[in-house]
Structures are given as structure tokens and as C-alpha cells.
Amino acid sequence: MARTDGAAIGGSRVTGRRQANLRTLADHLGLSVTTVSRALKDGPEVRPETIARVKEAAAELGYVPNVGGIHLRTGRTMKVCSILYAPEVGDYGDPGFLAQVESLSAGLEPSRYNLLMLAQTGGQTPLDAVRKVAEQQLADAVVFSRTTPLDERARYCLERDFPFVSFGRTELLTPHAFVDHDDEGAVVDAVARLAADGHRRIALINPAGTLTYLGYRLRGYQRGLAESDLPRDPALSLTADLSVRATREAARRLLSADRSVTAIICANQMSVVGVLEGLIACGIDTVRDGVTVVGFGGMPFRMLSDQRVVYYYQPQRRVGATLAHHTLALLAGEPAEGLTTVLPYERTDDLRRFRDDDSPMGAAV
Amino acid sequence: MARTDGAAIGGSRVTGRRQANLRTLADHLGLSVTTVSRALKDGPEVRPETIARVKEAAAELGYVPNVGGIHLRTGRTMKVCSILYAPEVGDYGDPGFLAQVESLSAGLEPSRYNLLMLAQTGGQTPLDAVRKVAEQQLADAVVFSRTTPLDERARYCLERDFPFVSFGRTELLTPHAFVDHDDEGAVVDAVARLAADGHRRIALINPAGTLTYLGYRLRGYQRGLAESDLPRDPALSLTADLSVRATREAARRLLSADRSVTAIICANQMSVVGVLEGLIACGIDTVRDGVTVVGFGGMPFRMLSDQRVVYYYQPQRRVGATLAHHTLALLAGEPAEGLTTVLPYERTDDLRRFRDDDSPMGAAV
DNA sequence: AGGGCGACCCGTAACGATACAGTCCAGATC
DNA sequence: GATCTGGACTGTATCGTTACGGGTCGCCCT
């Protein structure tokens, strides 16, 4: 039977001529499709000269491997999926996530992988989204954040040997690839320096929840206090949503009950703003009254008034780049053991560093 | 020849059993693969009872169409690609973009399409990214923003009949699907209301560039002035980058040269902050001195001090949802003519509306 | 009775890439 | 000279899906 449907199907609507495929190349070179296929992936059974000849022709004819064909034959999709968690309130989620995605996508650029984004919608659990990727074979690897110590997504992937890289550690026994920030180290550092500066009553704000990094923050806090011979006071370990409002109220409650507190370690950009608002509401000026606010997170918001803020900065782009690296390494067959990265925070005493670089993001206190 | 490679290939690593496919269903039902395929897409040649039977079995056996097979056979990838433009400075690009992506992805969820993200990296032009999508058949449709009147990406797609939806209008003669905000209408409204409140000297800040919306803003400004019988003064039409620094300086220059200005229409969240900073630097208090700042954009930053700000808000999620709708409609064969949406701005006189909903984003002036 | 006509279903050939089993031939080995 | 070896290639079947051209069968009409 003659081809009856080829003209309408599979042909590129983009270029006038059909997109070059292995057969095109093979015919053009007088080789078989098999040899061309092998040559393009540097198969050991093909002569070096032939390989060179094939690659040259491929470049010349603009050959691009057909992802559908590869998927069908090998099961590989040449996609990496990143899960997007919806902002809970308002239009903005984690604002640094965009930089992470951008650098992840850019990091995949030199490979033949592309980035798929899947939003965790409405009624879905975090596991649902990951399961969808695995079951529907949407991607060859998945990247997710907001890990918990016994993360069910990580367990799910480990059980079925589905490649993944998490942004955040877990406490699972099986090693897996991850990128994380050194929250414990940074909090230890913060406490130690505050203690060295004479602070005796140092508060820590954490949100409720079971995310792994919260444990690291708490451990860092306790270790820092112990190393500086400061007593632990449960009243100084606060739990509050990281919204401006909740952290403002938490700071206000803390300070109106106990004026001896001279330092507050916050958990993200928003809580810095909230705590500063809370301090102001209590009539406290950080500079005049010697109170230090310690912030953590991505690029901080602009601060107009010169309050005393020490900031531990997470370079978000490095996260994305490292996620990309680890993902590609996993997909290339490297064992997960070596693909574990704990990134240091960058400490700065002067938020004007961010202010004066024309941070497009900032608003001002 | 017997199958020799099937076990290792194409089988799902996820479930123990192989993933159900059309053949599985066909065997299970005693039908042919063809009929099953047709039944699943409600082909008119299949009896309704058979369709029901097939769909039931498909659900029971957890059939998921293999995207690779579809891609290979039909050329369709079942993907929609959104182009991500890298933030120019710092970690944050357009912060509302995340909400847009999230709602776009969520809007595609009920369909069988998934969202591909492609970052425009390093040396790439805007066209490069779109061309990559089309040439490499990465997706069946593309979504991009930052349109210009003679947008080359739109022209490229129109020429090759590649489906796309732009966020932003163009002035191309061929109609195409887009979503945009009504900048002209909103600026007209702003000017009219300012004039009604007695403002005679109203300034407008636009960034440099050729993006389409800038023209609409300018037209709205001129139309608004004309309708209120106010004279045009070129000195009141400012050009400045939308960074805090640049808009601060622009406002300062304007006000120190000419104290008669009583209203400034800004172009985005950042410029509101910058202009307010500029006013403060000139010793101007908006409330006391009767100066009005008009802001435009996504969710605004929190403002601590009670400055007089009128804000035209773009609901970002609606953009994403509409983009999803138009894309799916295009892919379903609807003509682009009807897929053009101009969304109204939501005006508010009181930014506390945003402040008190616990905007996770805000920082405070 | 038999021809015609729908309604409903099936068989086959692709789409592009790749795993695997051959094939072919020059050179080495006995 | 026959046999073996290994390097460099080719042929074929296959992944899951769908377009297309047939089939089959019951029913109606003349």
C-alpha cells in the first residue's frame, strides 16, 4: 500500500521541506539508518571518520532528533519536571522561585533535556503531582521543594527508582540527590556572632510545620546557644506564619511581654518586614535600642529606614544551576550519593548592598 | 522474529505491570485497536454502548495515552510552551509572572496538555526561543509576553501558522490570539478622575522601549488630557527605567524643577516605591500636600506610611487562566479572531486592601 | 429475491528511533 | 587453503498511535 497519510502528518509545518530525520541523513550519506543513529551518539562500532562525516551532515541538514520517536522507542521523554507550588495567598508565591526556575531551565539548555512545569493545583497533594509525572511518564526526572524528613514524594520516587532531585534534605536512609541551604550552620553562626556582640536573649521565629529545614534551624539555634553558654528559654522560640501580619503580631507579643530580648532571628523576607513593623509598634528602634533583627532568605525587600538588620542571603540562581547539574548527572547514570549539595548562606550586615544594586523588587520600610 | 527487547524498553518502571495501552484494552475487550482508539475520542463510527464499554475499561485498567506514540504518529506533542524571560537584575523578575505561570499550568490541567517552560538564556533573542520551540517541535503552541507593535515572534508564528497566544497586543494586520490589560482605558480613567479632583498638572512615567502597552499608555494619557481640556506639556511625560532608583531620580528631578505637578502616573509596582521615595526626598507628603501617585501593576508592595496612592491592579491569575483558555481553544481549532481579550484594571483608592489580606509579598514604606 | 445502503468494526501501514541479530570482508592464525 | 576473528556496517522488528481503505452484516426497498 502506498503512503496515503504522510503528507498531512508528522511533517514540519515550520520549514517548507520536511524536517530531516535519520533516514534523510542515511540516504544522503549512503549509510544505513542504524549506522547514522550510532554515529550520532559516538557508538564504538562506527569508524571515527564516519562519525565525523555523519555529524557534519547532521549539522548541515539541520537534523534534530524527534522526541516522539525517542520516547516511543526508549521510554525517555527528554524532559525534566519541576513542580510549582501555588502561592497560598495573593499573587506572589516564593518570589525567588522564578529565579530558580529560570536558572534550572538555563542549566538544562546545553543538554537535550527541556523543562516541564507542573503546578500542584487545587485539591492535589504534593504526592499527587509527583505521581502524575511518574505514572504518565511526563518526564524522566522530577524536581521538587519543601521537603519533610520523611518526605512521601522522595519515598515514592525511591521505591520505584524514579530519578529526582529535591530542594531540601530529607532524613530517609536511602541516599538521594538534593540541594539545600545550610540553615543549621547559618543559625549557629548568627547566634554565635550575636552572643559575641553581647546579646544574651536571642529569639527565633519558625513557622509551624514539619519541613526539614525547620529542624535544622532549631538545631542550629540550640547548638549556637549551647556553644555560647546561653540558657535555653522556650519563651524565645516562637512559632508564627511567615506572613507580615503574623510575624508582626508575634514580635509585638514577645516584646511587650519581655523587653530583655535584643535579637530576633527571622525565617524569610516577609518576617523581617513583619518583625520590624512589630518593633516599631512597640516603640523600639533597632539602632537606638541596640536590637538586632536577623533575616534569612532570597533577595530581601528594600528597607528605607536604616534599621539594624543582618541578613543571610540565599543565592537562588545557584540553587537552580545546582539542581540542573544534579538532575543531568543522575540522568547520565551517576549515583545519587555524590549529588548532594549544601549551599552556604552569604552573610551581610548591610542591606544597602541590595538596595543600591537597583533591586527591582524592593519596597521600603 | 520474536520480540527480543521489549522487556527492557518502553515498559513503565513505575507500576509492576506494563502500562495499559490500546492493544491491552483491545485484547481485554475483544475489539480491535482501531475501534478502541476511535471509541476513546468519541468517533462517530463507534456505537455509543461500545464507547461506554471502552471508556469504562480504560478507566479500570488505568489507560493513559502514550504521548510519544501520539507525537510520532500525529506530530502533536501535547505541550504548550511558555517563554520565561530572565530577570535583568537581581533574583526577581516580574514577580507576578509566577502567578501567571501557575494559573496557566492549572488552566491546562483539565486538558491533556502540559506546560513546557523555556527560559530565554544568555545570548538568545526573544525570537530565538520561539524559533526553538517551533523548529524542534517542542510544543504545539507557544505563549510569550512583552510584545511590540511589529513583534517578530508573532510575525514568525503567523508566517508558519504556528499557534500562539501573546500576553500583550501587537499592531500586525493578521489577527491573532492575545490577552492584554486595558492600559489605554485605565490611564484615561486615571487622568479623568484626577482632573475631576482638580489636578491640572499630571505627569506620566513610561520606561523607554517599544513595547506595545507603552503606546496605549501614552494614548490614554493624551486622550484623557484632551477630554478634560488640559494642555499637553512634554515636560510632564517622563521616561525612566522602572527601577526604584531611576523612578526616584525622575520624580526628584521633576518636582525640584516644577512644584506645580500634583499627580504622577507610574508604570509598575517598583516605580510607585521610587516615586514615593522621590517625593519624600523633596519634602513632599502626598496627603498633606495633596499630591496623588497613581500606580499600575500586579499586587503592590506594602506601604507602611499612609501615602495617597491610587492603584490600578492587574489580576495576574486571570491572565494565566485566559491564556490557558485561548491556547486550548486555538488548539481545538477555533479561529484566532475570537480569542482576543482585553482585561480591565481594578481600581482601588486604598492600598490597605492589599495590606490587610496578609500579602506575603509586601514590604513597607 | 436481490441489490443497495448505512452502521459498525477491522487490518495494515506508517510516524522516527533504536536494540538486536546478522552480514560482509580484510587480515590473522593454524 | 580453510577457519577464525573482529571491525564496520546493514536489516528488521518494535515501541503506541492513528489515517485510510476495506470489510461484514442486517435491514429496507423495489
**Shape field of chain A:** elongated
CATH top level of the largest domain in chain A is: Alpha Beta
Radius of gyration of chain A: 26 Å
Q: How many discrete domains of chain A?
A: 3
Strand order within the widest beta sheet of chain A: 2-1-3-4-5-11
CATH-derived architecture of the largest domain in chain A: 3-Layer(aba) Sandwich
User: H/E element string of chain A?
Assistant: HHHHEHEHEHEEHEHEHEHHEEHEEH
Strand-residue proportion of chain A: 15-25%
Biggest interface between chains: A-B, 90 and 89 residues
The CATH H-level homologous superfamily of the largest domain in chain A? Response regulator
Structural class of chain A: alpha/beta
Mean pLDDT of chain A: 88
Count of beta strands of chain A:
12
Architecture blueprint of SSEs:
The structure is a homodimer of 365-residue chains.
Chain A: H1 22-29, H2 33-40, H3 48-60, H4 67-74, E1 79-85, H5 97-108, E2 114-120, H6 126-135, E3 141-145, H7 152-160, E4 164-167, E5 177-181, H8 183-196, E6 202-206, H9 212-227, E7 237-239, H10 244-257, E8 263-265, H11 269-281, H12 286-289, E9 292-297, E10 309-313, H13 316-331, E11 340-343, E12 346-348, H14 352-355
Parallel strand pairs in A: 1-2, 1-3, 3-4, 4-5, 5-11, 6-7, 6-8, 8-9, 9-10
Antiparallel strand pairs in A: 10-12
Helix pairs in contact in A: 1-2, 2-3, 5-13, 6-7, 8-9, 10-11
The structure holds a DNA duplex (30 and 30 nucleotides).
Describe the structure.
- The structure is a homodimer of 365-residue chains.
- Chain A is an alpha/beta fold.
- The first copy, chain A, has 3 domains: 7-64, 434 Repressor (Amino-terminal Domain); 79-182 and 316-345, 3-Layer(aba) Sandwich (Rossmann fold); 183-314 and 348-353, Response regulator (Rossmann fold), CATH 3.40.50.
- The longest helix of chain A is centred in the middle third of the chain and has 16 residues, at 212-227.
- In chain A, the strands form 2 sheets. A 6-stranded parallel sheet of chain A has the order 2-1-3-4-5-11, sandwiched between helices. A 6-stranded mixed sheet of chain A has the order 7-6-8-9-10-12, with helices on both faces.
- Chain A has 14 helices and 12 strands.
- In chain A, helix 7 links the parallel strand 3 and strand 4.
- In chain A, 49% of the residues are buried.
- Chains A and B meet through helix 4, strand 1, helix 5, strand 2 and helix 10 of A and helix 4, strand 1, helix 5, strand 2 and helix 10 of B.
- Strand 2 (114-120) of chain A pairs antiparallel with strand 2 of chain B, so a sheet runs across the interface.
- Chain A binds a DNA duplex (30 and 30 nucleotides) through residues 1-6, 8-10, 21-23, 31-35, 37-38, 45-47, 50, 65-66, 68-75.
